[in-house]
Amino acid sequence: MAISRKIRLYIKSSSWIRRMFEEGERRKKIYGEEDVFDFSLGNPDIEPSDRFKEIVTGLMKGDTIGMHRYMPNAGLWETRRSIAQFLCCERRAEFKPEDITVTVGAGGGLNIVFKTILDPGDEVVIPKPYFVEYDFYIDNHGGIARKVKTKVDFSLDIDAISDGITSNTKAVIINSPNNPTGRIYKEDEIKGLSEVLMYYSKKLGRPIYLISDEPYRKISYEESVPDIFAYYKEVFLVTSFSKDLSIPGERIGYVAVHPDIQDKAHIIEGLALSNRILGYVNAPALMQRVIPYLLHEPAPVERYKRRRDLFCTALSSFGYEFIWPEGAFYIFPKSPIEDDKRFVSALQDENILTVPGSGFGCPGHFRIAYCTSEKIIERSFDGFEKAIKRFRS
Amino acid sequence: MAISRKIRLYIKSSSWIRRMFEEGERRKKIYGEEDVFDFSLGNPDIEPSDRFKEIVTGLMKGDTIGMHRYMPNAGLWETRRSIAQFLCCERRAEFKPEDITVTVGAGGGLNIVFKTILDPGDEVVIPKPYFVEYDFYIDNHGGIARKVKTKVDFSLDIDAISDGITSNTKAVIINSPNNPTGRIYKEDEIKGLSEVLMYYSKKLGRPIYLISDEPYRKISYEESVPDIFAYYKEVFLVTSFSKDLSIPGERIGYVAVHPDIQDKAHIIEGLALSNRILGYVNAPALMQRVIPYLLHEPAPVERYKRRRDLFCTALSSFGYEFIWPEGAFYIFPKSPIEDDKRFVSALQDENILTVPGSGFGCPGHFRIAYCTSEKIIERSFDGFEKAIKRFRS
After folding, report:
1. Could you tell me if A315 and A331 are in contact, meaning their C-beta atoms sit under 8 angstroms apart?
2. Over 90: is that where the pLDDT of B15 sits?
3. I need a labelling partner for A178 at 20 to 30 A (CA). Which of A10, A305, B179, B345 fits?
């Protein structure tokens, strides 16, 4: 065999996603981009603010020397300091610049966290449904993903998490506001989770880490997102500027450790070393200079909220069942039939592209990403109505 | 233990580098940045061209929609097409856009190649001395680095490479112009290597890949760099724009496969999938739009050549022994004493920062990176002379 067995397997097993994608592309060619309603990807259609553009232009016109050079693997000190100061305002902990590692997006951030903490065979507990990349990120570093259920409303099932912890558990990862459900975990869920983690950390004589993946934190509609740092100390916060600044292609994010995390010196050094040896080296330099100006920039929440209201009201009236999203830009309805892939294919017949729940470890559902224009959303309604009627008549 | 055993070990074993680095920083604080002669890092002091800045500014002022969004994992089609066209001019093979994967620098490029081809236990042959990150990049994906010697003049020792090949060998990696030696491998070396690889590929019934890491290709003083694609088909070219455009912090490079590589469809899909699942997702979007304008931009070779001539002439007159570099911006002299770390420490006493050959798998030497100003180079000469005299008197 030429390529690795694992990669060959991944290519094979992801072939249905590829087929879906190709079918979507085929339809776009036939019917035109405007008449295929693509809700498959979390790729914001909103443009970055004018301020973002002005800052980039201003930096390029300035006379700063060495702006595009290598830098310490953890990032520019000024960038780390700005992020630490921002977090001090937002969270109930006193962050210092060294607590921050600037990363190639949240994807890069999660990989350096796993590289730093996982020995082969170590387990990471993940509540389902979950962002499917977690499987790969954990496997990259020899870890094992252990999925546990959530409650019917997709809130954390603390007992299920507790049952999922073994002597090999190194971490639990949560994502709130959640992709794909749009759920925000409430204070009592976070508190309950923290208590379980404290109990087992004590029992095992070493910390079980809580990895909090929060790229959608600024896209919250109704509730404030509870501050994980207020409840637990063995925390890695991982986030990016992809969604709130609408720049996912630029690959910029960060990891923040709790200022009081145990063994902090090694952990911080491990994160920087992992940034280096995984080939990221450092987060893109120009963007590291841009983001300190935009940390307090609000995300376009109102626009996403209008879309959510529009979409959810219509879907509800057609008979779809779902939890109203509290954050992020996804709806995760029940599939009207058990076979979610078949229903997603029925939607495709209406030129509507979505992702089956199977892709998130949660069959019987499907995901709609509503980071698309209101016009596209409205024009898709006929198709959504027709598709559910096909199976409900 | 909290952090992984491997990371803990890496931190421990890299502590001498850290101590060196800290000692350098300490000296800079005492004597001033200008009076510590830092030749330790390959971080170009040259600024990117005005054209680079104009292109970035122009792009930001334009009205292209979606410039900062997610994109296919392999990169923007226009960028891949431009690179393919550039390679068609430069090399003896007909590249198509799909042969190109745009990456987070050469570091990202090497990691996706290793992720794509390596099964646990697979071996990669590396001629010594070598860029030390190869060890990590190979280990990240379960591979084993198998180092073989080069000749006294650091040219490829084809017999040693041949002896290093086993039934587990998946690839050979070469780096020309070379870091740390500055050697450019000549046509007969490349031809000899290709013949060996063809012989063993046939014998093993599967290709042994040649990974050609060429970030310094445009920084060549005397010879043209032979075109690897003319001699062998199972090739991954990995490179970046870090050195020729002086933008290493921006993390932009690419992988090009030989248009006639076996099992090409799987390999290309594997590279894109690896870009995705290793958390790079895609190479930074803005830079992907910049580089098509700068592919034919010459590197500042004349400036580096002046520095090389200045440095080498002086070192030679002090009694240092070395091969004159033919490319890149490194000199790799013999240490006047066997213990290279001790000699590097003696140079440090003169406020000169270099890296011991041990760091490149080649003790008894040390590396000087001359991507620093002529002024700094000239002012370091006294120290270089004193240091060698200390051991030669």
Report:
1. yes
2. no
3. A10
What confidence score (pLDDT) does residue A20 get?
78
Q: What is the DSSP letter of A334?
A: B
* CA A145/CA A171 separation, integer angstroms: 10
Buried b (16+ CB within 10 A) or exposed e, A181-202: bbbbbbeebbebbbebbbebbe
| B111 close to B213: Cβ distance less than 8 angstroms | no
Residue type, A368: I
- Residue B51 sits at the chain A interface (C-beta within 8 Å): no
Is B262 close to A2, i.e. CB distance below 8 A? yes
Write out residues 281-340 of A within 8 Å (CB-CB) of B.
281-288
Please determine, for the modelled complex, whether the ipTM score is greater than 0.90. Answer: yes
Q: What is the mean pLDDT of chain B?
A: 95
* Interface test mutation site (partner B, options A280, A288, A289, A373, max chain B beta carbons within 10 A): A280
Cα(A359)–Cα(A367) distance, integer angstroms: 9
Token pair of B342, please? 């001790």
Contacts made by residues B375-379, CB under 8 angstroms, sequence distance 24+: B376/B34, B376/B37, B376/B38, B377/B37, B377/B307, B377/B310, B377/B311, B378/B310, B379/B35, B379/B37
What are the helix (H) ranges across B91-157? 105-117, 133-140
Answer whether A133 sits within 8 Å of B14, measured CB to CB: no
Instruction: Report yes or no: A65 at the B interface, CB cutoff 8 Å.
Output: yes
Instruction: Answer yes or no: are the C-beta atoms of B379 and B146 closer than 8 Å.
Output: no
The vertex-A201 CA angle with A200 and A204, nearest 5°, equals 80
Q: What is the pLDDT of residue A1?
A: 64
State pLDDT tens for residues A144-190. Answer: 999 999 999 999 999 999 999 999 999 999 999 999 999 999 999 99
User: What whole-number distance in Å separates Cα of residue B279 and Cα of residue B273?
Assistant: 10
Q: Is the pLDDT of residue A393 over 80?
A: no
Q: Which residues fall within 8 angstroms of residue A102, CB to CB, at 6 or more apart?
A: A74, A75, A76, A79, A80, A83, A252, A253, A254, A282, A283, A288
Contacts of B53 in chain A (CB under 8 A): 60-61
φ and ψ at A369, to 5 degrees? -100, 115
Q: What is the mean pLDDT of residues B357-365?
A: 95
Structure tokens, B114? 């290793």
Please give the C-alpha separations between residue B355 and each of A116, B42, B87, B335, in angstroms, as whole numbers.
Answer: 26, 11, 34, 11
CB within 8 Å of B58: residues ≥ 6 apart: none
Q: What is the predicted pLDDT for the residue at B159? A: 98
Q: Which residues of B touch A110 (CB under 8 A)?
A: 279
Q: Is B355 helix (H, G, I), strand (E, B) or coil?
A: strand
pLDDT at A21 over 90: no
**DSSP 8-state class, residue A269:** H
What pLDDT, in 10s, does the model give residues A339-384? 999 999 999 999 999 999 999 999 999 999 999 999 999 999 999 9
CB atoms within 10 A of CB A314: 16
- Nearest Cα residue to A59 out of A247, A293, A343, A356: A293
Contacts of A48 in chain B (CB under 8 A): 68
Residue B107 touches partner A, C-beta closer than 8 Å: yes
Question: How would you write A152-163 as a 3-class SS string?
Answer: CCCCCCHHHHHH
Q: Which residues of chain A does B34 touch, with a Cβ-Cβ cutoff of 8 Å? A: none
Whole-angstrom distance, CA of residue B181 vs CA of residue B128: 10
- Asked if residues A231 and A191 have their Cβ atoms less than 8 Å apart, the reply is yes
